[in-house]
Design brief:
By secondary structure, the chain is α+β, with helices and mostly antiparallel strands. The protein has four helices and ten strands, in the order ααββββββββββαα. Among the domains are: 70 residues, no CATH class; 94 residues, Immunoglobulin-like (Sandwich). 25% of the residues lie in helices and 19% in strands. Helix 3 runs antiparallel to helix 4. The protein is globular. The protein binds calcium ion (3 copies). One calcium ion binds next to helix 4. One calcium ion (CA) binds next to loops.
């Protein structure tokens, strides 16, 4: 009994000495750092699991794979493979991407269809560089490059003077440094006829459609369509006009959780600035047919 008491008092004495020593504070700090690191790692894994769960257990076509996610085995759904998440610039050049900027997405490259997230930089099998047509456009109220680089999924229709029109429902337009947007399409060669003229219709995800007439389309060129601004205000679900119902929708979104679908100037918030953009368009109302 006496022995146990002696040993217990020796232990307390040692603890007391340790708590007063120079090692005490650094040891506690190290312990806190280890606990925080464990929490962060489990948080990241949880986020990845949640993202996967949202996609039904695997990444579907067009989904960007987060850079912190292991790519072996492939996180893509069956039949899809990882491709680089890059776009050609206005000069048709493909950007090189450093390891730090690693960004990939899942796609069915090789299925013969040039999907909206594919281009000649990341899937030349499906998107031939020879057919590339660049389009530069301007959305109303976006006057500088938004902080978030997300593409505006825009509808493009090519209507040749004679022959069938072709609609490309989801063309990805990415922001340039000056508030303009750039996107590429890969139309069939028959539509790239330098001896004929065509009209191009462009409709943004929350904008009225614009018509650009009398264009000569040749492969490899970039068409500057910034002469007409794509007026903002035809909000989802779009009906081809800007009216009271769009106004009411936008005003109701001010007090709801943020959604990019209603952020007209893409500044990361929905407020009276966006409403004033829409009011400007109310006087225009209908889109160009
Ligand atoms: Ca494809
Ligand atoms: Ca509308
Ligand atoms: Ca805004």
């Amino acid at each position: 009994m006496k022995k146990i008491k002696k040993s217990s008092s020796a232990c307390c004495k040692k603890l007391k000495e340790f708590s007063q020593s120079n090692y005490f504070l650094p040891s506690i700090l190290l312990l806190i750092i280890i606990i925080l690191a464990l929490i962060t790692v489990s948080g990241v894994q949880k986020t990845i699991r949640e993202r996967l769960k949202a996609g039904g257990g695997c990444f579907t076509a067009g989904k960007t794979v987060p850079s912190d996610m292991p790519t072996d085995p492939s996180p893509c759904c069956t039949g899809l493979a990882l491709i680089r998440n890059v776009q050609p610039n206005e000069q048709k050049t493909c950007p090189s991407i450093t390891v730090d900027e690693k960004s990939t997405l899942c796609s069915n490259c090789g299925n013969g269809a040039c999907e909206p997230w594919e281009n000649h930089c990341n899937c030349s099998q499906d998107c031939s560089e020879q057919r590339m047509l660049g389009l530069k456009i301007k959305f109303q109220c976006i006057n500088q490059k938004p902080a978030k680089d997300s593409p505006q999924k825009t509808k493009v229709k090519i209507a040749p003077q004679s022959g069938q029109s072709v609609e490309i429902p989801n063309t990805y337009f990415y922001p340039l440094n000056d508030g303009f947007y750039f996107g590429v399409i890969y139309p069939e060669e028959t539509l790239l006829d330098s001896t004929a003229t065509s009209a191009i219709y462009v409709k943004g995800p929350k904008h009225l459609q614009r018509k650009f007439d009398n264009l000569t389309l040749t492969a490899g060129q970039t068409l500057d369509l910034t002469t007409k601004i794509l007026e903002a205000g035809d909000l989802p679900t779009q009906d081809g006009k800007v009216d009271r119902s769009d106004y009411d929708t936008l005003v109701s979104k001010i007090s709801e959780p943020y959604s990019e679908n209603y952020d007209l100037n893409m500044d990361g918030g929905i407020n009276m600035v966006d409403v004033s953009c829409l009011i400007d368009t109310l006087s225009v109302k209908y889109e160009e047919e």
